[in-house]
Amino acid sequence: QVQLVESGGGLVQPGGSLRLSCTASRNIATAYIMGWYRQAPGKQRELVAQFTGGGTANYADSVKGRFTIPRDSAKNTVYLQMNSLKPEDTAVYYCNAIYRPLPWGQGTQVTVSS
Q: Which helix (H) or strand (E) holds 5?
């Protein structure tokens, strides 16, 4: 079973940047379409960014223009580059496969606050 490990979260001021990493226990680049989710306190988990089958990416309106998802297939790693962070981006961030979900990792906490 593929294991996912997220890292890179932390406390950042509004307007700042963070780069999250999601590393899989084996190569998933060709087998899964990956995405990033987040869950804020008291809210449902939401999808914020995902690769498409055509190799491009889609983003939730709330993060469009600020977040991107670079990938390093050689390292089995998917990143979430987050720029111009806002307090409403505060959440636990998870990666997972979109259409064939894998066991969820522990996530990584992102807190945007001054």
A: strand 4-7
Q: Which of 9, 25, 17, 38 is nearest to 77 (CA)?
A: 25
Are 84 and 11 in contact, with CB atoms under 8 Å apart? no
Those residues whose C-beta lies under 8 Å from the C-beta of residue 37, and which sit 6 or more positions away, are: 45, 46, 47, 48, 93, 94, 95, 96
Nearest to 33 by CA among 50, 20, 16, 14: 50
Measured between alpha carbons, how far apart are the two ends of the chain, in Å? 40
**Helical (H) or strand (E) element with 60:** none
Between CA 11 and CA 40 the distance in angstroms is 15
Lowest mean pLDDT among 15-24, 27-36, 60-69, 87-96: 27-36
pLDDT the model gives residue 27: 81
Q: What is the mean pLDDT of the chain?
A: 93
